[in-house]
Amino acid sequence: MTQLTAVSGANRPIVSLTDVIKTYTLGKVEVPALRGLSLDVYPGEFISIAGPSGSGKTTALNLIGCVDTASSGVVSVDGQDTKTLSERQLTDLRLHTIGFIFQSFNLVSVLSVYQNVEFPLLLQRKLNPKEREQRVMTLLEQVGLDKHVKHRPNELSGGQRQRVAVARALVTRPKLVLADEPTANLDSVTGQNIIDLMKELNRKEGTTFIFSTHDAKVMNHANAVVRLADGKILDRITPAEAQKAMAAGAEGH
Amino acid sequence: MFQLLLIALRNLASHKRRTLLLGGAIAGVTGLLVILMGLSNGIQTTTVETATTLMTGHVNVAGFFKVTAGQSAPVVTAIPALQQQLLQEVPELDYMVQRGRGYSKVVSDTSSMDLVLGGVDIQNETGFRKALMLREGRMEDLEQPNTLLLFEEQAKKLEVKVGDTVTLSSPTMRGTSNTVDVRVAAIAANVGMLSSVYCYLPNSTLRALYQMRDDATGALHLYLKDTADVPAVQARLMKRLPELGHKVLDHNPNPFFMKFETVNREAWTGQRLDITNWEDEISFITWSVKALNGLTVGLLVLLLIIISVGVMNTLWIAIRERTREIGTLRAIGMQRGWVVLMFLFEAFMLALFGTLSGALLGLAVCLGLNAAHITMPMAVQLIIMSEQLRFAVSPVAVAGSIFIITFCTTLVSLIPSFLAARMKPVTAMHHIG
């Protein structure tokens, strides 16, 4: 198998994990989730993290997204060691550098489509109302929801909600977008549309995407697939190799 | 900020039942508070209006005259000179009236009772007609000597009506007993506890009863332009009148008829002035206002505790239900302070909605009850100092209750809000429940 490293010309990785260990304590039992994970992701990459349930995909994304902290090791995002940052700085890093797309969409139910997408911009307080409106509407047009701006999330289909979530993740023009199983709650066609949308934005804007998935079809769109097992990186391979490996695994069973 | 307000408002709207229940409870507490304060204020206003017309000025220059050490009369002598001095010393003065003071046994054909006598020159007492509602007779008849105004309760007990004669029997300044026959000229509606203590007669009749000279009276009632000046005027007179050659008793915050025992025990003879304010003179009846105020404060504290627990519980539930949302908002870059603010807004708006509707409700109840002119039983009349329930809702008090309840409700919501904000985003996002 081909061990893929940097695909981008950039020198400095946007995400760098070095010997990261994460252990959860459940009562008196310690459950290891990551056991010495090292990974570099460069700007503009479109990377899939694959692996069975419990392999550590979500934990890795949480650490990269600065919503959780490692038990040991170094997690560096956009050149900053997250362990050295205060809670306020971590929140600022999430706000200005990272966009999140969640498996269950996680939209604010009482806000409209427009307000959900606008929300991170309001938190940033960088743009004036006119610029904000322009930015939000452009994105909503891109994701095909410009006719649904006043709808509440419960008035939308699953695919539409995920597209709102994509727009919300991208509205701040983050350097890095993390997507945890973004297609898991969608039918295959809608899931494909979402991946196509992410891919297009990756190509046009150069935004780095790291997403976790079980789905081989989704993996196909990635530049590289990082396979995890038992909290460790198994390998970093091409999507084609990942397909083969999955097929072989299925036959083996 | 607007977005946070919107989230808070829409969350309240999306949980209609909970919002209505808790908002209703807050409204109930506020409404009750407004009604209680209206009642308390109504009693206070009635008491002050009635008492400052019928039995005391804002400031009183009264006194006791003792021929022998153990025998005192509520008399001030050499009034014209004293009046001149007061006019000079009290620029805040609106007007001044002479009010005779006495204490007498009132004897009818079938019964008798001890009453405090108030000597009035009815033609100068314009407030009298406003403060008293006559059931029988005419106020003007009190201009004639040897007449008497009784209250309904007294007339009933003495079994007399207008035109009947009763005998007043009092000890004079010289220590002998004197009697005067007076005709009942008017019977007024009861005005609370005052009705069982006071009756009124012309100053000339009171002087005759006490065998006093024309330049003597019971007290000079000073009515000020602004009642806020009362403490300053009282303090000034306490200082200046001794400097002007008068002997002044130490301040004793009680009505004059409760001071006889103390004054009689003292060794001095002659004239001593007694300077009091309206609160001193009605201290024996203001207990009801104080008790009601105490009850209001106690009830407020109790209700605030109940409401606070309710608000905290509701916010706990709201936070539990929205833990994932908090996690998401924190993940996308909302600082902890904003999370706190979001829940504070929610509690604030709930409290504001509750207190505003409660205040309006309380106000409507007060206005309705005022309009209904409900006559209260005698036992209640004694407490409320009026025949009818009267609610005087002060805008400042209403604003105060809205502020206090809203503030306290918002304040207690800080605890769950802080705890919500302290949650790790990842823990919050994966919360189940």
The CATH C-level class name of chain A: Alpha Beta
Return the CATH topology of chain A. Answer: Rossmann fold
What is the number of helical segments of chain A per DSSP (H or I, 4+ residues)? 8
Largest sheet of chain A: 6 strands, mixed
Shape of chain A: globular
Superfamily at the CATH H level of chain A?
P-loop containing nucleotide triphosphate hydrolases
Structural class of chain A: alpha/beta
The most extensive contact between chains is: A-B, 28 and 23 residues
Rg calc of chain A: 18 Å
Instruction: Please bin the fraction of helical residues of chain B.
Output: 40-55%
On the 0 to 100 scale, the average pLDDT of chain B is 86
CATH architecture of chain A: 3-Layer(aba) Sandwich
What does this protein look like?
- Chain B: The chain crosses the membrane at residues 20-39, 295-318, 338-356, 396-419.
- Chain B: Belongs to the ABC-4 integral membrane protein family. LolC/E subfamily.
- Chain B: It holds the Pfam family FtsX.
- Chain B: Its main location: membrane.
- Chain B: Keywords: Cell membrane, Membrane, Transmembrane, Transmembrane helix.
- Chain A has 253 residues and is of the alpha/beta class.
- Chain A has eight helices and ten strands.
- Chain A has helices at 57-64, 87-97, 113-124, 129-142, 158-170, 188-205, 216-219, 239-252; strands at residues 15-26, 29-41, 46-50, 72-77, 80-81, 98-101, 176-180, 208-213, 224-229, 232-237.
- In chain A, strands 6-7-8-3-9-10 form a six-stranded mixed beta sheet, with helices on both faces. In chain A, strands 2-1-4-5 form a four-stranded antiparallel beta sheet.
- In chain A, α3 packs across α4 and α5 (158-170) packs parallel to α6 (188-205).
- By secondary structure, chain B is an alpha+beta fold.
- Chain B is 53% helix and 19% strand.
- Chain B folds into two domains: 2-49 and 286-429, no CATH class; 56-281, no CATH class.
- The mean pLDDT of chain B is 86.
- In chain B, strands 1, 2, 3, 4, 5, 6, 7, 8, 9, 10 and 11 form an eleven-stranded mixed beta sheet that branches.
- In chain B, α12 (336-372) packs antiparallel against α14.
- The A-B interface holds A 62, 65, 67-68, 87-88, 91-92, 94-96, 99-100, 102, 106, 108-111, 115, 118-120, 122-124, 168, 172 and B 3, 6-7, 10-11, 14, 324-325, 327-336, 338, 424-426, 429.
